[in-house]
Every structure is written in structure tokens, then in C-alpha cells.
Write a structure and sequence with these properties.
Elements: H1 13-22, H2 34-38, H3 40-44, E1 51-54, H4 62-68, E2 72-77, H5 80-89, E3 94-98, E4 106-110, E5 115-119, H6 127-130, E6 133-138, H7 150-159, E7 161-169, H8 188-195
Parallel strand pairs: 1-2, 1-6, 2-5, 6-7
Antiparallel strand pairs: 3-4, 4-5
Amino acid sequence: SDIGSQKDRVVTEEEWLQKWEMGNIGFHKEQGHPLLRKYLDVLLNGRSGLRIFFPLCGKAVEMKWLADMGHSIIGVEVSEQALKEFFADHNLPYCEEPIPEIPGGKLLQSTSGDISLYCCSIYDLSSSIVGKFDGIWDRGALVAVNPCDRQRYVSLMISLMEKNSSYLLVTVSYDPNKHKGPPFYIPESEINTLFG
């Protein structure tokens, strides 16, 4: 596939943490993503009280929006700063506890219990730790994952999905020879191959 010079690009965890520390988070959308509003019916599919997963969640405002609709939100993010900013931005009280299965990992959970955010590498998660999900909102995760890790990421996502899960995926289309990423360009043919 023609992904230009991107296929060997690797962005380290430290680089992501630095983006948050420096406030270099142009990927964060203060108003939420218009495509989630547009395709909300596809995600929910007439169901209520869903468990919805936000991979590489940052401080996505949609987490609060969906929690306010009665859904349980689970997110994962390597930046503790991003998670703490999420709770602060929404004036949400939360508690923090270690994740026994993940050395150094933390769970930040709203005191209401409807938002649970894991601070760790996404690859430390498994269904035995977080359970399975009725819906996944992937708005910047797959396109942020290093190209060499895509198959590993998609295999994890598939392992976290319930039988009737809905998976909303947002990608970006551009000439990968003109931008080194992230966000990375992923041709539709590769998405079809990855997810089967």
C-alpha cells in the first residue's frame, strides 16, 4: 500500500506525554467531534445503557456527553495529565486507584461511577481487566498508533468487542508523502484487511 515514508515512523510514549505537557494538542476538539453526533444512531443502534470504549481518549468531551445520556464510559490514555484535565474541565469529582494487573497503571473513576479512565499503555489492557464493549468510538486512536503496531492494536480492539458491538472509526485522507504523521494515513483497503 502507498503510505509513503510513514510505514517506519514511530512516535514514542514520551513524545505523546510531551505533547500534553507542552499543550501541543491540536487533535483535541473542544466542541466534540461532529461525526459522532452525525453517526450516534449507528453507535447506539437503538440501545441504552451501553459500555462505550474510547481508545487513546485524551480528554475527549464526548465521554461526558455520552455518560450524561446514561452510558458507561471506559477510556484509556497514557497521559495522566490529560485524564486529570478531563475531570477538571467538567468539574467532575473522581477517585484514583492503582490497577493491580498493570504495574504503574492507575484507574481514575468519576465518583458517580459512569466514567472509568485507565492511565496506562493501551497494550496493557485486556478484556479480563476492562471487560467487553457494546461500542467503540475510535476518533484518533488507529490513526495515532504507529503503523508497525496497527495489527496488534486492531487485534486488541476486536478482542474487546461484544458480539453486537458497533465500531465507529474516523480516519484522515491526505497524501502521506507530504506529511509524516500522526495522524497517519491508512488506505481503506488496509482498514478492510485489518478488521476483516
